[in-house]
Write a structure and sequence with these properties.
Elements (H helix, E strand, L loop, with lengths): L1 E14 L2 E6 L2 E7 L6 H13 L3 E2 L5 E3 L1 H4 L2 E6 L20 H17 L4 E3 L6 E16 L3
Parallel strand pairs: 3-6, 6-7
Antiparallel strand pairs: 1-2, 1-3, 1-8, 4-5
Helix pairs in contact: 1-3
């Protein structure tokens, strides 16, 4: 699985003019299941995201995790993270099939929540509008172990 993680002071996702997910301090996680991904990879990536020490401590160092700061996660599916960009038109053949992607997206969200982190979600496959205030800015790309 692949994730783009952004440290935020706030973030929200809107579908058809309705706000469906919103957080304050925490992480906006754009997530994509790739072909062949499993629940084990989803759980590994969830653990990695939850324990990623990218929040500031008293010395202003990135040394605290999401649970350390009492933050939340806004998790949004984004199959375009699988883009292959050899030419000028991206291809997405390495993304998981929609049914697998939806299942693993739900599994990832549940795995993050199982770590005690409050989770808000987008809507899988919907046309979403994502708003965020990137804190830092801090943006980190993660791939699950294969």
């Amino acid at each position: 699985m692949r994730a783009l993680v952004q440290r935020v002071s706030e973030a929200s996702v809107t579908v058809d003019g309705e706000k469906v997910g919103e957080i304050g301090t925490g992480l906006l996680v754009l997530i994509c299941a790739m072909q062949g991904d499993t629940e084990a990879q989803s759980e590994w990536l969830a653990r990695k995201v939850v324990n990623l020490r990218i929040f500031r401590d008293e010395q202003d160092r990135m040394n605290r995790s999401l649970p350390d700061v009492g933050g939340s996660a806004l998790i949004v599916s984004q199959f375009t993270l699988a883009a292959e960009t050899r030419g000028n038109r991206p291809g997405f053949s390495t993304a998981a099939a929609p049914d697998d992607g939806k299942r693993l997206y739900g599994h990832f969200s549940a795995a993050v929540a199982a770590h005690g982190v409050p989770v808000a979600n987008g809507v899988f496959g919907a046309d979403m509008k994502v708003a965020l205030v990137n804190d830092g800015p801090v943006t980190i790309w993660l791939d699950s172990e294969r």
